[in-house]
Each structure stands twice: as structure tokens, then as C-alpha cells.
From TrEMBL:
Pfam families named in the record: Acetyltransf_1 (PF00583)
Domain N-acetyltransferase: 6-152
InterPro entries (alphabetical): Acyl_CoA_acyltransferase (IPR016181), GNAT_dom (IPR000182)
Protein name: Diamine N-acetyltransferase
Domain of life of the native organism: Bacteria
Length: 152
């Protein structure tokens, strides 16, 4: 399969309406907060940057990236990541995560990336393992924490 061209665009007044209408499969809604909630959160926690994910100029997903390293572990967190249900299972998750990792790598002083998810979220686990994340063995708020060390 030809890898899609993925672009991250900051969520702004022009695209937030589309972003909050992105859909998940019904059994996935328990795994992630609604995009509307994440966008609201980014307004009161301005270190959290909301990005719409585009493939070939069409919005296919959403992510929230912490632009500041966690003072505790100096990791950059990816608090949210989702691909619209219509686009799932076609390699967009992998391609998007690759772009997100490159984006974080380009941030100054980035040393590692952390992501947490519900232990029952098999798709997320498989995807993150494929991308090179490793299980830290740590659990926070009932979620497992995976980490990727950054090599520059
Ligand atoms: C997790 C998620 C982002 C994957 O997106 P996607 O576009 O379907 O992923 P891809 O098509 O690139 O698949 C990547 C890998 O994920 C795994 N995967 C995807 N769908 C899967 C499924 N239904 N069951 C098990 N594994 C699955 C596979 O390992 C797959 O690799 P493969 O194609 O080589 O087999 C998507 O399912 C999603 O948005 N889920 C709801 C939100 C969520 O749970 N986010 C993560 C927690 S914050």
C-alpha cells in the first residue's frame, strides 16, 4: 500500500467544527475523551496542542500533544490520539503516529515520548508496539504507560 501523506494542522477557528464531528466506533468511545473536551482542555492548559490529522488534505483524525516535557520524567506525552472510524484499518493510524513522533522529535530537548491507554484497548496496544513503543510496566489512572526513547 502507498503510504498516505499525513499532515498535522493546529485546530483553529476554521477546522474545529469538522474536528468535533470526527466519529469513533461505538465500542471505542470509552477509550478516549471526545475531541470537543480535548479542544476545551487545550484552551485552559495551553501546553496541550490540539492537532487535526489530515491525509491527502482530508481530516481523518485528531491528536493532543504536550509541548512541554513532564517535569517528573522529562517525557513529551501524547494525551489523545484517534482516527475517524471511516478511515480506520487502512494504515492511517500507523502513518499518523509516525508523523506525530517526527513532530515531537523536532521539539527542543525532547528525550522520550509517553502514551497511556486502557489495558483493554488491543488496537492501540498493537499499533504502539509496532511503532516501537515499549511497556514501562507503570500504571496511572488505570491506564498502561508505553514509552519510546528518542534518538536524534
Ligand atoms: C487505535 C487507532 C488509532 C488505530 O488506527 P487505525 O487507523 O485503525 O490503525 P492502522 O490501520 O494504521 O493499524 C495499525 C495497527 O493497529 C492494529 N490494529 C488496528 N485495528 C485493529 C483492530 N481492530 N484489532 C486489533 N489490532 C488492530 C494492528 O496491529 C495494525 O497493524 P497492521 O495493519 O499491520 O495489522 C484507532 O483504532 C482509534 O482511533 N481507536 C479509538 C481511539 C483510541 O483508542 N485511541 C488510542 C488511545 S488514546
Amino acid at each position: 500500500m502507498i503510504e498516505p501523506t499525513i499532515e498535522l494542522k493546529v485546530v483553529d477557528r476554521n477546522n474545529w467544527g469538522t474536528c468535533i464531528r470526527l466519529k469513533l466506533k461505538e465500542d471505542q468511545t470509552k477509550f478516549i475523551a471526545p475531541n470537543l473536551y480535548s479542544i476545551a482542555q487545550s484552551k485552559v492548559e495551553p501546553n496541550l496542542l490540539p492537532y487535526a490529522i489530515y491525509a491527502n488534505n482530508e481530516m481523518i483524525g485528531f491528536t493532543l500533544i504536550d509541548s512541554e516535557p513532564d517535569p517528573k520524567d522529562l517525557c513529551h506525552w501524547i494525551p489523545r490520539f484517534m482516527i475517524d472510524a471511516c478511515f480506520q484499518g487502512q494504515g492511517y493510524g500507523k502513518a499518523s503516529m509516525k508523523t506525530i513522533i517526527e513532530h515531537i522529535k523536532s521539539m527542543p530537548n525532547s528525550t522520550a515520548i509517553r502514551i497511556s491507554f486502557d489495558p483493554d484497548n488491543d488496537s492501540a496496544r498493537a499499533l504502539y508496539l509496532k511503532m516501537g513503543f515499549m511497556d514501562t510496566g507503570e500504571i496511572e489512572d488505570d491506564e498502561v504507560i508505553f514509552e519510546m526513547r528518542i534518538v536524534k
